[in-house]
Amino acid sequence: MKAVCWHGAHDVRVDTVPDPEIVNPRDAIVRVTSTAICGSDLHLYDGVIPTMAAGDILGHEFMGEVVDVGGAVTNLRRGDRVVVPFTIACGRCEPCQAQLWSLCDNSNPNAWMAEKLYGYSASGLFGYSHMYGGYAGGQAEFVRVPFADTGPFKVPSHLADESVLFLSDIFPTGYMAAENCDITAGDVVAVWGCGPVGLFAIKSAFILGAERVIAIDRIPHRLRKARECHAETIDFDREDVLETLRVMTGGRGPDACIDAVGLEAHGSGSLGAYSDAAKTSLKLATDRLEVLRQTIMACGKGGTVSIPGVYGGYLDNVPIGAAFAKGLTLKMGQTHVHRYLPRLLTLIDDGVIDPSFVISHRAPLSAASAAYRMFLEKTDDCTKVVLQPAA
Ligand SMILES: [Zn+2]
Ligand SMILES: [Zn+2]
Questions:
Q1: Which of 217, 241, 320, 380 has the highest Cβ tally under 10 A?
Q2: For the chain, how are helix, strand and coil distributed in percent, rounded to 5?
Q3: Which residues are close to ligand 1, an ion, with C-beta < 5 A?
């Protein structure tokens, strides 16, 4: 089959690789009909996530048709149309039973790698390094889905791929980011990053009752998309983010701040941003933290900082004192995708939201290399690329 394979920083290729096979009775094989490139794939593309190996198949946002199931899978049949959560979960361990699906105890066969870095391992992930299980991803014609009796979520035939594909990751991720803000009526929520997760966080914040959402980015087409989602916007290249937020909120700061950027923040020319850039390039620091610093400094007293953006390493010059002084709550982590699927499918089916609004480009799987570059460089007003293996 054809699959998008990682070969090093800024080097992805569409290779011919062996078809996946059932290796466990709880597996299924899915023929991928649509898959997307995620902002977090760019961290792999940039080579900043450890434990990648040449030839690894990328992709954790995908859906398709079940073409084979293992003997223990009774809930799926050949021909079922499913969306697959990017977090792999067994459904039986203590975290899974507690609906903390992205913290599954059983789905990462390389847990020891994550334990070295983090103390304990979270769940395995599709197409996201050996530290997260080394699972082949879904930017491919076919994919093996472990724990298929738990993960794949059937979607109705009257909803197009493009309307349901993002249930695999970015819609639940944006929604959980907003839910983590414990929004109450009248709240003002600020969102850093107007990429797809940021846009879903904006929409979700409104769905959950926010009165105003203020979105921060610097790329005109992303700011325009945010305004189309009814957010007010701040261009961080033109305005001082902290001062502008203070003015826009009558001097009290947002009730919640969402960091939908993560470890590769571009920074706004501040000293901290220059320091991050220098230190990460010299391998003296792991993450670029400008957005995290801003969310903590900007957040109003007693507020929440919600972090759907991916971080990997250690904090450098993060104002933990400000978080303490203002009594902030910090919430973060990989999305518990499974928990949100029925709820979010209902929102789609009821017409409350059509997730396809984030898509800017569609391309055949064979064009993945150019698509990654375009998505990284945000050229041609690119916000989200869907790859179609059959196109
Ligand atoms: Zn993703
Ligand atoms: Zn589990």
A1: 217
A2: 35, 20, 45
A3: 38, 40, 169
